[in-house]
Amino acid sequence: MRLRDLTPNERAAVEERRQAVREELARIDAPWKPTPEQVDAAPFLDDFEVRHDGLFGLCWGHPWQGNVFLTTTPIVHSGEGWALSENTLFILGGARPAAEERLDKVLSGRRGRGRPIVDFNAPVPEADADEAFKP
């Protein structure tokens, strides 16, 4: 299943996150760290959760897979806003809420961005006697 394209605002937010990752990696003193070019080419992983040793989530810009739901290879290193799998650096968005939180949202009648499924407070239109039933 192909994911929808990111909106311009979402792309700008990803670039802000990418810049924050560049700044964090510049402060790290390690024998190896991702280069700025690798950070620029890194795919964006959002709404992710840890599965076994890797991550599962929505991925945009993967070099081989494209924009897809993705399970990564095991994570080797990670930091604030980034994770390095065995073969790919990822820029991380937000983590997926715990299953209990998602279930609570469903059971409380909320979906999407907090919209109720049925608006019980909406005014009920009065049916016109002549238009109540039309075959």
Unreliable stretches (pLDDT < 50, length at least 5) are none
Order of H and E elements: HHEEEEEEHEE
* DSSP E strands, number: 8
Portion in helices: 25-40%
Assembly type: single chain
Strand arrangement within the widest β-sheet reads: 3-2-1-6-5-4
User: What is the radius of gyration?
Assistant: 22 Å
What number is the mean pLDDT?
80
Class from secondary-structure proportions: alpha+beta
Q: What is the number of helical segments per DSSP (H or I, 4+ residues)?
A: 3
Q: Give the end-to-end Cα distance, rounded to a whole number of Å.
A: 42 Å
Describe the structure.
With 135 residues, this protein is α+β, with helices and mostly antiparallel strands. The chain has a domain of 85 residues. Helix content is 26%, strand content 30%. It contains 3 helices and 8 strands, in the order ααββββββαββ. The strands form 2 sheets. The chain has a 6-stranded mixed β-sheet with strand order 3-2-1-6-5-4. The chain has a two-stranded antiparallel ribbon with strand order 7-8. A hairpin with a 2-residue loop joins strand 4 and strand 5. The radius of gyration is 22 Å and the shape is globular. The two termini are 42 Å apart. 14% of the residues are buried. The model has no long low-confidence stretch (mean pLDDT 80).
Task: Produce the secondary structure layout.
Blueprint: H1 8-27, H2 36-41, E1 44-51, E2 54-62, E3 66-71, E4 75-79, E5 82-85, E6 89-92, H3 99-107, E7 110-111, E8 115-116
Parallel strand pairs: 1-6
Antiparallel strand pairs: 1-2, 2-3, 4-5, 5-6, 7-8
Keywords, separated by commas or semicolons:
alpha+beta, two-stranded antiparallel ribbon, 3 helices, 8 strands
